[in-house]
Amino acid sequence: MIKKSLTLGVLLLLFGSIVFSNVNSISTIQPYKKNSYISNKDGLDIHYIFNITENLSNIIFTQYNESAGEIAKGRAFGTKGERHAAKILEENMTKIGLYTYKEQLCNSEKYPDLTHELEIVDYYVKINNKTVDAYIAPVWIKNSENNNSLNFTYNYSGLKVIKPPLIPSLYVSSVKLINKLEPFVLILKDKAFYPDSPLNFLPFWNNFIFNYKVVNIIYRGVPVLYSYLWDRYLDYCKGIILYDFNKDTYDMNILKNINHIPFIYINGSNGAKILEDHKNTKIGFKLEQKLNTSVISYNVIGQLNATNKENDTIIIDCLYDSWWCQGTADSAIGMSMVLAIAKWFKENKITPKYNIKFIGFSGEEHGFVAGSRHYENLHKDEKIKYVIDLNQLGFWQNNSKLILNIISNNFCFLKNIWKIVKQSNYGKRVNSSEKARPIFMKDGGPSNSNPFAKNRNNCITVCFLKDSGWRYHHRDGLNHSEGDVLKYFDFEDVEITGEIILNIVKYLTLDR
Prior knowledge:
CATH class of the largest domain: Alpha Beta
Number of domains: 2
CATH superfamily of the largest domain: Zn peptidases
CATH architecture of the largest domain: 3-Layer(aba) Sandwich
CATH topology of the largest domain: Aminopeptidase
Helix content: 25-40%
Largest sheet: 8 strands, mixed
Distance between the termini: 48 Å
Strand order of the largest sheet: 1-11-13-12-14-17-15-16
Number of helices: 13
Number of strands: 19
């Protein structure tokens, strides 16, 4: 009886939060006209989307000279790869016929560290003197090991590998009693965005919000916990090796400002080799890092004005930066779809009822949505009615089907656009996806829509994000040929997802 009452109370609380958080904007939601749906034959140019995606994905190959020792950082925040991507967007927006301009990110009273980034100047990882594919997360915490300076070079060789003991102090004390304690690295399995959580088999808990806000935080928090536990023993513990659950890829996890020691990401194959004989394995690594407080990065904006130029604004956006990989799904595809929507409007000579800004936001990955934070804060006087945020979209994986999550901060709006989604028959038409599903989140989706949802009471946001078990999230490998790469581009998914988003944009700007 107590259990039933508790469950009922939670459901009532959830329902109440949904209703009252949307009560001010219910009057702005108008009914969707079913007979206005655009099918794929009249929709977005899929080959155009692929071509732009290919150009953005190939930046990691075209803009860096790895044979000369240059680190290929893809479209990472503030890099020449990101700036080249901004050039590609600017050129294509101009070619489409939009009024196009760039805005450079800058610090503000609200975001004083927006242009701060801890850059990796040089790095390598060696297992038994052999260099391997890897990534090392910079250390944002000042401590005794780095002489209380973020500008520091970690450089070690001949380190032992140990499986992490439960209580560091007991391990240190016991080894000291037996013999001299040698410097070492810990080794753990990296479960960031791990798709095989046992909690996923429980019906109630297998949902996006629980996985995103609980499961992922737990898995990503385990190495952080160890870094805190070993903070007192940095004379001995020099780093944590995190081997991937994938064979050929390694992670580049978001650990900004929280890791006390270097986190060394390697692929699952190299992790298995270490574990086969960890007592006879020696690790060497170098991490030279430097704090840059004036990162140069741009939001790229293409504007299409309404008949009345003083009208409200709709933002259609995507991140265009990436991790040190091709960044195809996260999110060259989504960015290319934004351009394709703009192209559709111009080719059909459509003047929308609201001003539309097609925006490529920079710094979403490394900068924690730096670009959208900057834009939202800088344009306080702009009447932004809707933000349509595209994130990781249009890709496939062969081991399990994924889900297209459609996340909004407004329950009534979500209910209305869901009629459009149902007309697409997404789940039946896209072989690589299980289904599409609506999700209400008060603060919007976990990407560029978030600053607008949090800071603007009357701004309705929707985020399109394909996930729920994507194995290659933030991953790279095999000379940038595995992980988040172009070969997983799914023409079928791009076509149907683009069809859904175009119809929602049309519904908001034309039909009503």
